[in-house]
Amino acid sequence: MCNFSKITTNWKQKVTKMAKKDTDKDLLKEKGFLSQRQDDHFAMRLHAAGGNVTSDYLRAVADAADKYGKGYVHITSRQGVEIPFVHLDDTEAASETMLSAGIGPGASGKKIRAVVACQGDRVCKRGLIDCQEMCEKIDELYFAAPVPYKFKIAVTGCPASCLKVQENDFGIMGFEEPVFVEENCVMCRQCEKACEVSAIKIEDGSLYLDMHKCVACGRCIGACKKDAMRTKDKGFTIFVGGKVGKRPRMGNMLLRTCDSDEVFDILERTINYYRENALEGERLGDVIDRCGLDSFGETVK
After folding, report:
1. Which helix (H) or strand (E) holds 246?
2. Closest Cα partner for 65 from 101, 89, 93, 94?
């Protein structure tokens, strides 16, 4: 005959232990530790914005990987840094070591994730905006802020879109729109050669600029030596609602603006709209599809 009281006690202890383990994992996740498939091992996610880290940052991470991991780091698809194989017993010490080096935890779960960005006009010859400056400001304002599910932001310097802004909840792309000054043109065809989307054609001694094809990359402006292609507008194109995953969605182009302050105003209103309207498990693109792009645009513009 079994001892029912003993079985009940053992079951309660097991449930309590499991609940504590889940709670511990939740707390560790808040500190940037993501569970691995190996028991009691975690990947320590570290905060990095825009893919720019100092040499001191790299030395501190390398030392931590040697001491607490297996001597290597993983660079994530979002320009982040993770140290895999940190044992549960070492998580507190590893976290304190990173904090002492000025490196905080990365974000996961229902938060605004680290901003990704290209080098922009600081380095890239095609860059039209200072992506790193914008990234730094966004990161300072919004990194790890709570949201209904997750929210990803990307900044790219030109329509080449190396940072795939159309695949993020909020994407910012540099643009430079040309205007043709006919009296300055000598029909040298340099602008035509520079255009990678066939928006410029020279036929029968006339130049045709098709703004329906033009992606506002500004290459024709840079190629022209006679001031026949000038800058009409230069600034930021905003995309919203993009995501990848099992149900990918390309972001909608919301607007173009020459005012960086307007970019931040729209970002703030977009995040507020998402917080106020999202259902459980919805990304921004899901909310836009359910509520309508026009309704969204009227609210945030």
Report:
1. none
2. 94
Q: How confident is the model at residue 242 (pLDDT cuts 50, 70, 90)?
A: very high
Q: C-alpha distances in angstroms, 78 versus 81, 177, 203, 219, 279? A: 9, 29, 45, 28, 25
Cα 105 from Cα 19, distance rounded (Å):
24
Cβ neighbours, 10 Å, residue 85: 17
CATH architecture of 22-100: 2-Layer Sandwich (3.30)
Burial 202-227 (b: 16+ CB within 10 A, else e): eeeeebebeeeebbbbbbbbebbeee
B/e letters for 21-37, b = 16+ CB within 10 Å, e = fewer, are eeeeeeebbebbbbeee
Residue 236 φ/ψ, nearest 5 degrees: -130, 130
Helix or strand holding residue 87 (H, E): strand 81-87
SS3 148: coil
Instruction: Quote the pTM value.
Output: 0.89
The residue-averaged pLDDT of 89-117 equals: 96
- Does the pLDDT value for residue 281 go beyond 80? yes
Question: Where are the chain's structural domains?
Answer: 22-100, 116-300
User: Distance between CA 241 and CA 13 in Å, rounded?
Assistant: 46
Token readout for 261 is 């302050």
Sign of CA dihedral 250, 252, 258, 259: negative
Measured distance CA(247)–CA(285) in Å, rounded? 11
pLDDT tens-digit series, residues 204-241 = 999 999 999 999 999 999 999 999 999 999 999 999 99
Q: At what angle do helices 260-277 and 284-291 cross, to 10 degrees?
A: 80
Please check whether residue 208 is in contact with residue 257, taking contact to mean a CB–CB distance below 8 angstroms. Answer: no
The answer as to CATH 3.40.50.10190 being correct for domain 116-300 is: no
